[in-house]
Amino acid sequence: MDVTLISLHWVYLAFVLLIIGFMVMRRDTTAVCVVGILALGLIATQSVSQSVGGVFSGFIYAIKELIGTILVISLIVALSKVLIRTGINEVMISPVTRLIRSPALAFWVIGIVMMIISWFFWPSPAVALIGAVLLPVAIRVGLPALGVAVAMNLFGHGIALSGDFVIQGAPKLTADAAGIPVADVIQASIPLVIIMGAVTTAVAFWYMRRDMRNGSLTMDTGLKATTVPESEAAKIDSPLSPAVRKIAAVVIPLLFALDIFAMFKLDLQGGDATALIGGTALLVMIVLSLLSSRKAGLERTTTQLIDGFLFGFKVFGPVIPIAAFFYLGDSAFADIFGNTLPDGSHGIVNDLGLALAQTVPINTGVSAATLTVVGAITGLDGSGFSGISLAGSIANLFAAAIGSGIATLTALGQIAAIWVGGGTIVPWALIPAAAICGVDPFELARRNLKPVVIGLVVTTIAAMFLI
Questions:
Q1: Any domain includes 76
Q2: Which member of 34, 188, 277, 455 has the lowest number of beta carbons within 10 Å of its beta carbon?
């Protein structure tokens, strides 16, 4: 499995490091990403016009990939505004408020509920369901919105997605690439998922409590200007009677519960599950707008929808350029700039990961560390899934060399790729949780970084003893 690296690979890697550096310094990366796309286009096509056009095409590609998430977030936000204006949210959250009485309890309860739902339906639909109901409860007991986003991220896009024990999409990909049964990967991943999840969430919780005590993490930390303040409910009179609000507070969660049942019964996953949640949110928003605004109901419906879309695109605006650049590391490159990579290339990111694996000495410790690094590198495209087949293939090679540990190495590469790219580190991958909580996705990524890195180090060390 030889790989040839050309100037495109090295330029792409240079810009990746540059972008990461700008993120660490808390500087905007839009201009850097645009220059990066332009540079890759010039090298690939030797044409100024094609490379300039490639910048626009890259943006279009990113928007197409993200549009489903943008739409469902926009619809959920539109619905949440109606719930706030009518006071229905107050009635909905009152029972849960009595159960969650502290920031610590809010963090762990939201995280565990998120993990359980994500096992069955994947994290994106779970974010929409949980955020709309439990975010106001958490804020009311003193947990900042950024803390809620961290909990949903780590438990959903981290623990649940990296193991994927129920739907088994991730272990199927890695197992096929490694040439072993899916059950072997799942069995090997269980202790690693537990270690990674326990270490990462515990470290994140410790950092959160420390920063809340010293005042560096407050209720306003990381909030976007587009966040809908809960106090808005007090500014708008609701024509709905208390009885109607109580009925709506029961019916709305019931409708989303029926969505969950339908997902399970009809085997709806990923985009299909998200579409069901988004469609339900839209219909509920329309009905409530018509009921609460009466004669102005039609106009109010349109206004709420516009507000939701404004929120969605304001949140995603800074993300589209960086997503456009990183999508070039995978299949988007050939779509935009043609087939200019070397024969046998698996995409820029996968080529870099494979080249790394071929340049290191092979033993138990190095094998585990390399699978973690390769998984993390392939996760930089923001999907978490595009590179896990490569992780399985490399695990096969390393296991053959050291004579054991193929399932453990495969599971380790899978976990690293999904924790980095599936929605805890790469800013555009963690957009759903950031948008629902109204926080800056880059600030959320920075807060997740240390706990995830520490978790990966501990998990890699543990894997060395399990191989």
A1: yes
A2: 34
